[in-house]
Design goal:
There is one protein chain. By secondary structure, the protein is an alpha+beta fold. The protein folds into three domains: 142 residues, Arc Repressor Mutant, subunit A, CATH 1.10.10; 122 residues, Arc Repressor Mutant, subunit A (Orthogonal Bundle); 159 residues, Regulator of G-protein Signalling 4, domain 2 (Orthogonal Bundle), CATH 1.10.167. The protein is built from 18 helices and 13 strands. It has a five-stranded mixed β-sheet.
Length: 494
């Protein structure tokens, strides 16, 4: 069974590729490159590549995903399902895409270049890029020697903060709870990441110390004065948010930093500043400059967990009084908790982190990806005219990609689902698809089975992961602050 599709990068309203497509394109490119050694200024640098190699491979890029399994109707036969995705672009477009990879901090120059005008320029993956590649390889079961050697290198230390995005627009979620959670990571939820000295000669680069676990580098505003605020430079903040989060555009970083300012978590810091100068700095918004400093406010220290809040709540605001359950909804239902978590970006981010720590992240990943697949399926079916064959073919290719990653026997992220449902999926996915009306019928059958698999995974997360997540001391306090129990009563459960 072989399903092919040509991948068209979806673009957002502000003219950038959707993040997931962008990361998949990047990872597919990296897998296609030899990632061998190159000499730069008399040094031999491992796991590198040139501009020429990148642009040549981007001109015609293919990624195949296969899975071998016994035929459900005849176990003596082996059936192979293969999905091949093709990216293609002109050379100038390839250079533009490479520049986006550079701007997103997925790659960096080894020889000091800032663009791709020279074919012989040498590049390497950043720790952020390696994290993205690693997750792509885990999902798709990729185990190639040159990739494994790269991911086993000591530079692969980044633990990215995975930001939640709107599936329709790809925009980041910026509600107050989400900003608080991101700020905890940014500031360092175990305490400030202090520099040894506040000397201006010190580097503000995060590259030698940041792994996504510690916060942005800070220092006391006045050396030796424990009452002076913790301060950091604008460029240090920009670098941390760009290097340690799944941001892909500098505009997202500025939006996030300005959200910190607007929430009164940080404020401009000017030594011996006057009120007017402070107001001027505030009015101009966040500046990513080494000459501009920001201080963590008292509210910011409370949100970061550095100091206790006398009111007992993170935001110095009384939590809403729990409402009585309505419409027969039980507040003790883990199914309802699961529904609330999936709908709330901040809770979903925390739940994703918990699942990653407990090696169950594939459950949430599958649920979210199937939701996206079913939305694409509904859009294809809703049109006034019959769905175009290339649309149906691409949607089916997405289904086979999901199946090979999560549901096929022996798949890299194989899920624990009902045996009968697994056999039904195997029976459908190993049958030929056909053309025209038969293809649409096949897609209808696949969508129905995927909907059932999604429901099965939802129940598994609700019964097994949600209770443990709610009891975990690392997350329990944040869940109380978010007032999860009250949300169960106020959110209509569908």
């Amino acid at each position: 069974m072989h399903q092919t599709s040509s991948k068209l990068l979806r673009m957002t309203d502000d003219d950038r590729p959707f993040t997931r497509d962008f990361k998949d394109l990047f990872s597919t490119l990296m897998v296609s490159l030899p990632l061998g050694p190159h000499r730069v200024r008399f040094s031999r640098i491992e796991h590198t590549f040139t501009t020429s190699e990148m642009t040549t491979n981007l001109g015609s890029l293919k990624f195949s995903q296969s899975n071998r399994m016994p035929d459900p109707k005849d176990t003596s036969r082996i059936v192979t399902t293969t999905t091949t995705t093709t990216f293609s672009m002109a050379r100038e477009m390839a250079k533009s895409v490479c520049q986006r990879f550079l701007d997103a901090r997925f790659i960096e120059s080894v020889d000091g270049k800032v663009d791709f005008s020279s074919k012989s320029s040498v590049w390497q993956l950043t720790p952020k890029g390696m994290n993205i590649l690693s997750r792509f390889c885990q999902r798709n079961g990729i185990s190639q020697r040159h990739i494994n050697d790269l991911l086993d290198s000591p530079r692969n230390v980044m633990q990215l903060v995975t930001l939640e995005r709107d599936p329709e627009t790809d925009k980041l979620s910026y509600d107050r709870a989400m900003i608080d959670i991101i700020f905890r990571r940014f500031a360092g939820d175990t305490g400030p990441n202090l520099k040894a000295s506040s000397s201006s000669s010190d580097s503000d680069s995060n590259s030698d110390c940041v792994n996504g676990i510690v916060g942005v580098r800070m220092t006391r505003a006045k050396r030796g004065d424990k009452k002076s605020p913790y301060v950091f430079t604008g460029i240090a903040a920009f670098d941390w948010l760009m290097d340690c989060c799944t941001t892909v555009d500098k505009r997202e970083v500025f939006d996030m930093a300005n959200a910190f300012l607007n929430a009164d978590l940080i404020e401009p810091y000017i030594a011996e500043r006057s009120q007017s100068s402070s107001q001027t700095s505030q009015a101009t918004g966040f500046r990513a400059s080494k000459s501009v400093s920001y201080a963590v406010t008292m509210k910011g220290m409370v949100v970061a967990g550095w100091v206790a809040d006398p009111t007992g709540t993170v935001n110095s605001e009384a939590a809403a009084a729990p409402s009585k359950p309505t419409n027969g909804v039980s507040r003790d239902s883990n199914t309802n908790r699961m529904t609330v978590i999936l709908r709330d970006p901040a809770l979903r981010l925390l739940f994703r982190e918990y699942l990653r720590e407990t090696h169950c992240e594939e459950n949430l990943a599958f649920y979210v990806e199937v939701r996206s697949f079913l939305a694409d399926y509904e859009r294809a079916k809703r049109g006034p005219a019959a769905p175009r064959q290339d649309t149906i073919r691409e949607t089916l290719a997405s289904a086979y990609s999901l199946y090979n990653a999560f549901l096929a026997p022996g798949s890299p992220c194989e899920l624990n689902i009902d045996h009968t449902l697994r056999n039904a999926l195997a029976g459908r996915m190993t049958r030929s698809v056909g053309e025209d009306e038969q293809m649409i019928k096949s897609l209808d059958e696949v969508a129905t089975l995927f909907d059932q698999a999604q429901s099965s995974v939802f129940k598994l997360m609700a019964s097994d992961s949600v209770p443990k997540f709610c009891r975990d001391p690392k997350y329990a306090a944040v869940l109380r602050e978010r007032n999860l129990e009250s949300m169960l009563a106020t959110v209509q459960i569908s």
